[in-house]
Amino acid sequence: MLLGLPALLLLALVFAWPVLRLLSLSVEGGTLAHFEKAALDGLYVTVLLDSLRIAALVTAICLALAYPVAFWLSRAGRLGLALGMFALLLPFWTSVLVRTYAWMVLLGRNGIVNRMLRDAGWIEAPLPLLHNTTGVLIGMVHVLLPYMVLPIYAALLRVDPDLSRAAEGLGAPAWRSFLRVTFPLSLPGVSAGCALVFVLSLGFFITPALLGGGHVIMISMLIEQQVREFLEWPFAAALSTVLLLATLAIYALIGRLTRGARLATP
C-alpha cells in the first residue's frame, strides 16, 4: 500500500483534482443553468451528436483497416514484423500538426490526389476531399489507426495457433475457425482499441479544425471557442463535463457489448 501511495498522490494531483475543479466550475453559483443550455440549445446538441457520429465512423473505419493488419503482424516472421512495426510506428515520430498539413496538400482541389486522378482520366473536376467530413475522417483515421492495431495485435498474440489448427483438423473451414475461435478470443483487444480510438476521436481538435475548414465542428472546437473568444469558462466546463459523461457512457457500452458478444459466441 505504501509503495503505491506516491503514484496515487500523483494521479490525484494531475487527474482527480482538475476533474473536480472542472465540475465545480460548471456549477458556479450553485446553478445548473449551463448544463440546461448545453442540453436544450439545438446548436450544442447537434455538435455533440455530430462529434459522436464522426467518432463512431472513425472507430469503425479504423477497426476495419486495423484488424487485417494486426492479424498479419501476429502471423508474420521476424522481417515482416519488423517492417510492419516500423511502418506502423513511423507516424508517431512526426507531429500531428505536420501530418495534418501534409493531408491538406494531398487532398486540396489542386492537390496531389486530384491531380493524379485527373491525369489518369478518372475524373474531370476535382473531388471535394478537403473542408468536409471526408477530409476529417481521412486525417483522423490516419492518426488513430495505430491505436487500434496495437491492442488487437497484442490480443492476437495471446491466441494459441493450435486452437485454429485443431478446429480445422476437425473439419471446420478456415473462415469458420476464424469466426468461432480466433475472433472471439481477440475481442478484448478489439474492445480496448475501439474504446481508445473513440475516446481520442471525441477530443480531437487540430485535425478537424484544419481539414474541416470550419465546416465540420467538433465538441472540442466548440469548447475552445467558448474559452478563447467568449471567455465563458463555466459554460465551457459544463460542455466538457457533458463530453466526459458521454465518453464514460460509450466506454461502458463498448465493454458491455464486447462481453455480450463473447458470451453469445458458441
TrEMBL record:
Its main location: membrane. One of its GO terms (biological process) is transmembrane transport. It is found in: Cell membrane. GO terms for cellular component: plasma membrane. The chain crosses the membrane at residues 54-73, 80-102, 136-157, 205-223, 235-254. It is a multi-pass membrane protein. Residues 48-254 form the ABC transmembrane type-1 domain. This is ABC transporter permease.
